[in-house]
Amino acid sequence: MSRGPTRSSGGVIGDIHVFLQNVNKNYAHVDYVLEALKDNFDILFFQELLWRTIRQTVSTTSEEGDDIVGAPKHPDWLYMVRPPTNGQNPYVIAYVHRHLAVLCPSMWRDIIDHCDLFVLSLFMPCGTVNLLNVYSDNAHMVINLLAWEINQLPTFIYMGGDFNCHSEVWNLSCASHPLVAQHLLELASDIRLEWAQPSNPGLTHIPHNLDLAGSVIDLIFTAPSVSVSDLPRLDLNQHGPLDHVPISTLLLLSEIDIQVSHMVILREFPEESGFLIDLATGLRSLDVGNLSSSDQIEAAASVVAEVFSSVWNAHVKEIIVMGHSQSWWTDECSDAIARYWESHVPDDWKATLSL
Question: Is the overall model pTM greater than 0.85, yes or no?
Fold first, then answer.
């Protein structure tokens, strides 16, 4: 692969290479990958990183100094991680190559804030693209969290990670498709993604203990429009000493239809009046009974919440928010603005404004 992302003649970044691996708390391997892949990849997503003391700093209370903890750093990579919060160390991290600094890479904790999730946003001329780095434990806590928060999530162009989720869909040697796997597929569909089978399919978790069976639990989800030639690939050359096989993915930003969707009930529309009428009817029909104990209050609150949820789902509708708000925007407008981003010629900008 060539140095840096592919750019158009006008300098617009057209694709990015993403490398993903569960590093199993191996500090030395992360340090190696940062140097080895600095000329090949644009984004590195790691799960199960090691959060350890890397040096000491001057302290007013200790002769040895205060510990500075963190993960490996490298001058070519922007180090992006959710800081430890309430005693919980982060399990996911992103390294973004400095040549992507022009896209203002940002970590969004206000979208969803969890030590096992990392939302990375890049700001393109045609809109914002979001990528999601995931670690889900054996209890499937993060899969369930994402499914619960699905209406709050933006559209993504990529979701990848160690999902610890077995299914016959991505592993033919698995004889079942559990409910949590179906939930994963459904939430991916809700954020406009689908599971992308690697072009060289194989096991992604190969335990060092030969008595244990290998599995496919490291998964990539991309936009349905991804062509066969750009499917993820198991990167066996960068496996290292770990038991998780890394996965590399080429994302063609120029071919992605960037859309942001929200679930809303529009004001002064029939859906709003229907929502209010059904909500009032549902609340009036409740018989919460005695509220003398905390358990009874909790049960009543759950019933009220269920009424709100069911009425909301009955009247809500999805709206697509584009990079432009005018209803008159056409393909001709899109072509004109694309020509300007390619050329940066003032006349092309004037032509766009004249439409």
Answer: no
